[in-house]
Structures are given as C-alpha cells and as structure tokens.
C-alpha cells in the first residue's frame, strides 16, 4: 500500500474526465449509526471534476458477479483532490455492508460517472431550501460545502429529518459551517428522542407547519428535496396544495435498481428491425438482436460484459460509444446531450434500428 504524500499543483494534474475510473480508498469514517463516509483519490493522480450533487456508481466485488451501487458524491468539487461517498447500510444490505466490512484504505475499486442533474449549478435560484431525510442529506451536503468554499453568503435554509438526534448525519460540520455562512439556517427534525438525548428542536414528521416555522419564506425559495419516497411525496403534495411554482422544485430518488423508474415506451414509428446485428468491436463478437431487445440484453446473451447498475437509463453506468448504425434510445437523464452528440448511448435503454457497431 503506497499512501505516500506527494504534492502537485492542480495545473500539473489531469482532470477526471473519463467515465470509468479506479478509485483508491483513503479513509473510512463513521458518521452516525450504520453510516460511513469513504474518501478516495484517483489511482492516476487526476483531480476530480464534477458538479456538486452528482453521483457515481461503484463496482463492489461482493461475489462472483460484482454489485453495482450508486452513491452521491457528498464531497465538494471545490476540493478536487479527493471524492467521498457517505453511505447508509439498509437492513439486509449487500453492497453497502460489503463496503463497511471490506473497504479499507489502500484498496481500489472501479467507479462509473459522475452523472446527474440534481445540482444548484444546473437549477440556480436566489435562495434555497434544502429538504432531506436520512442519507438523502448527501447531495445537500455537497452543494452546501461547495457554496461554503465559493459563495459563503449564499442564502440556504437546510432542513434535515432523522430518526433520532444521533442519526443526524453531518450535524457538527453543518453547525460549524453556519458560524461563517451568515445566511445558512439549520433546522433539524427528529422522529424520536431517547431518554438521554438532549433535544430542544422539532419532533415528529415533516409537514407544512414545520417547514413554515423553519423557512417562513419557503414559497420564494428554490427547493431541493431528497429522501425516502414517502418523504418526498408528502413534501411534493404539500407544495402543490399551496400553489408552489413546481419549476423551482427538484428532487432526487435513491430508489435501488430493483424498482427502476419505467422507461418511456419506444415510439411506434421507430421499432427495432427484425434481424439486426450488433458488432461488439472490442470483444470481436457479432450478436443477433431480436426485435425490442436492448443492446445490454444482446450483449449479455453474447457473453459481452457491459457494466450496468440501474438499468433504467438513469445512472449512466452502461454508457458505450456507438461507432456506426442507428438506435432508438429512451433514457431517464443518465446521459448528457453533449455525450449523445459525441456518439455515446446507454446500452440499457437503446434498441437498434439498423445494424450497429458498439465499442465494447
Ligand atoms: C442517484 C442515487 C444516489 C444515491 N446516493 C446514495 C447515497 O449518497 N448514500 C446512500 O447510502 N445511498 C445512496 N443511494 C442508494 C444506494 O444506491 C443503494 O440503493 C442503497 O445503499 C442500498 O444498497 P445496499 O447494498 O445497502 O442494499 P441492497 O442489498 O441493495 O438492499 C438491501 C435491502 O434494502 C432495500 N433498499 C435498497 N436500497 C434502498 C434505499 N435506497 N432505501 C431504502 N431501502 C433500500 C432493498 O430493497 C433490500 O430490501 C443512491 C441511489 C441513487 C439511485
């Protein structure tokens, strides 16, 4: 394990601009019960280029087939020499639990990304309301850390809901940031308190009264919301009922791959032709693709490995270069327009319209 400290200025290093990287674990830090932050550096001494709030997909060697798990970068791109993910182990967790038990400083894992649109950089506002629950705090923390470094006068009301006071992730760092960010207002809401917990804050579930108490001007703010589906649903319906301008409302779902967002139907006027052939140039294989089959399905049938996680056009892990031919792609935001212009497609949600050649 070579953890030697070497110094290089940013302009002596290359940016992290590929889609597949090896990350070397630098540290594993407990944050709260069942929550750890893992910090990484690039194995090639790249600096990290991403937007606050974006996510990566990690390839975790949990068994013969790796588990692909998507995590928001909780770190800030204003500190570009390392990245961090903050992960909460769910009950019966496979991937996150593997990280807790096995991922140690010096180990290397593969990462795909960064991707995602859930960032104040993409949806700027005059003032913000960050609403999070549980591990949904990670994108808000990345954005707040970024603003602390680059625009400390930013106006943010930061509301987090947790099970109990000891479950609040990043509480002490947020309180520290609030000391020099004069317009960072913190509001913590907990569901329950133990006998030994000193708690004078709000208790119970989030509702309109609590939001209005902590952010009296919430109707004027640009809102970012992330947490369990029921949490986001109650926030969304409360805002809609109050006539909030939903163009200023942005949310991120942490739903795992088992319950993907359904892809839009492939349009009838562009069906996959019968008998199309896919050439996988790197594997040197040709595969027949049945009507309606995706490139990912055809690759698997032909024994060609393309990394994939959400399989719903969201996480961007299965991005591949299309060298020739035409496809019908119906994604959920996991690929940027610039990338499509360059010739990239997502294999999980692309169906050939003609014979195609894929760099895989
Ligand atoms: C865009 C995006 C960003 C994400 N960012 C983060 C992050 O910053 N930190 C983080 O901890 N997680 C994040 N997630 C969730 C993460 O990808 C995994 O789904 C989650 O960590 C569960 O993986 P696991 O290996 O622990 O559990 P698994 O072995 O996959 O599942 C164990 C059990 O937990 C349930 N489960 C799985 N995922 C969730 C979930 N998200 N909520 C509730 N129950 C679940 C499963 O149905 C199963 O019963 C993000 C997901 C997405 C799509």
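Q: What amino acid sequence fits the structure above?
A:
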């Amino acid at each position: 394990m070579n953890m030697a400290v070497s110094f290089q200025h940013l302009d002596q290093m290359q940016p992290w601009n590929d889609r597949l990287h090896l990350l070397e674990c630098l540290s594993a830090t407990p944050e709260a019960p069942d929550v750890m932050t893992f910090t990484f550096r690039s194995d090639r001494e790249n600096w990290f280029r991403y937007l606050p709030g974006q996510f990566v997909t990690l390839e975790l060697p949990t068994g013969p087939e790796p588990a692909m798990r998507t995590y928001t970068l909780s770190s800030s791109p204003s500190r570009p020499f390392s990245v961090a993910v903050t992960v909460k182990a769910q009950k019966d967790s496979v991937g996150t639990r593997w990280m807790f038990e096995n991922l140690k400083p010096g180990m290397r894992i593969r990462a795909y990304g960064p991707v995602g649109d859930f960032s104040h950089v993409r949806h700027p506002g005059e003032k913000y309301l960050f609403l999070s629950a549980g591990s949904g705090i990670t994108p808000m923390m990345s954005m707040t850390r970024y603003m602390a470094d680059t625009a400390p006068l930013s106006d943010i009301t930061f509301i987090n809901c947790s099970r109990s006071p000891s479950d609040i992730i990043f509480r002490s760092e947020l309180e520290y940031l609030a000391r020099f960010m004069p317009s960072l207002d913190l509001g913590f809401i907990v569901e329950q308190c133990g006998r030994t917990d000193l708690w004078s804050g709000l208790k119970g579930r989030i509702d309109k009264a609590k939001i209005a108490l902590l952010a009296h001007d919430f109707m004027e703010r640009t809102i970012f919301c992330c947490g369990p589906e029921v949490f986001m649903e109650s926030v969304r319906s409360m805002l809609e009922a109050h006539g909030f301008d939903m163009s200023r409302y942005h949310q991120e779902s942490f739903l795992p791959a088992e319950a993907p967002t359904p892809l839009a139907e492939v349009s009838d006027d562009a069906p996959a032709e019968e008998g199309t052939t896919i050439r996988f140039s790197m594997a040197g294989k040709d595969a027949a693709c049945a009507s309606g089959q995706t490139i990912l399905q055809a690759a698997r049938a032909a024994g060609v490995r393309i990394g994939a996680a959400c399989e719903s056009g969201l996480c961007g892990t299965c991005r591949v270069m299309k060298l020739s031919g035409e496809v019908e792609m119906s994604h959920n935001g996991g690929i940027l327009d610039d990338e499509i212009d360059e010739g990239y497609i997502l294999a999980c949600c692309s169906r050939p319209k003609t014979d195609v050649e894929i760099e895989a």
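Q: And what stands out in the fold?
A: Helices lie at 95-102, 137-150, 171-180, 208-214, 229-241, 295-301, 337-342.
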